[in-house]
Amino acid sequence: MHQNSPIALVGCPKRDVGPVESCLADSGLNLRSTGAIENGDRVVFCISAYYGPTDGTRKSIESLCGKSVVPIGIVLTYADMVDDDSLRELVNVEERELLLRILPEDVVDDLPLLLDLDPNLANRLADLARNSTSEVRCVQEPQ
Known about the structure:
Helix content is 36%, strand content 18%. With 143 residues, it is an alpha/beta fold. The protein is globular, with a radius of gyration of 14 Å.
């Protein structure tokens, strides 16, 4: 991956993406503007542990249909507001179920889960982006 390849954060701008965007603002990573995703972008799926999947979460995921992206991970935001690991896991499962609507199962299964409260989040995402090269076309599955 080229050092300046864009990373797009996918999720409800107000409920899912905000904490990650704030955390990464000074990291030096090349972040796309929220909601602006282009073919070939590395994507990080953001989901709020507190709010769970919202309509905004679903719409942002569905907006990827027809695009080819490189999925690099899932970030659980507002993780500090939910101190029950089983509730965090439930939100993770719900996010993965949403992703199965547009991505192959093996891709979704391989996505690492990160927490927004991780002080090394920017470095971890940079490493994942650098080492992820498999572009996947997002296709809406019939429900």
